[in-house]
Amino acid sequence: MVNITKDTIIGDILDIAPQTAPIFLSIGMHCLGCPSSRGETVEQACAVHKVDVEGLLRAVNEAANA
Fold first, then answer.
1. What are the backbone angles phi and psi of residue 36, rounded to the nearest 5°?
2. C-alpha dihedral, 21 to 54 to 58 to 16, nearest 10°
3. Residue pLDDT, tens place only, 12-45
4. Which of 18, 35, 56, 66 is most enclosed, with most CB atoms within 10 A?
5. CB 27 within 8 A of CB 49
6. Selection from 47, 50, 13 nearest residue 32 by Cα
7. Is 20 helix (H, G, I), strand (E, B) or coil?
8. What is the pTM (predicted TM-score) of this model?
9. Alpha helices of the chain — where are they, by DSSP H?
């Protein structure tokens, strides 16, 4: 079971659960291949994109563990 937290690096999420990419894209994180976005934590990305971190974590964890 994968446990993604607000401190998990987006690049790591995409490496272990590439099926989560559409979730990030749907909330405006379109530069998933950029070095800076791959090095951001979930919390940092949510702050930049003004997204609720807890809601995103629920969706990403659900998709990663499906």
1. -70, -40
2. 40
3. 999 999 999 999 999 888 878 777 778 899 999 9
4. 56
5. yes
6. 13
7. helix
8. 0.88
9. 10-16, 21-26, 35-39, 42-49, 53-64
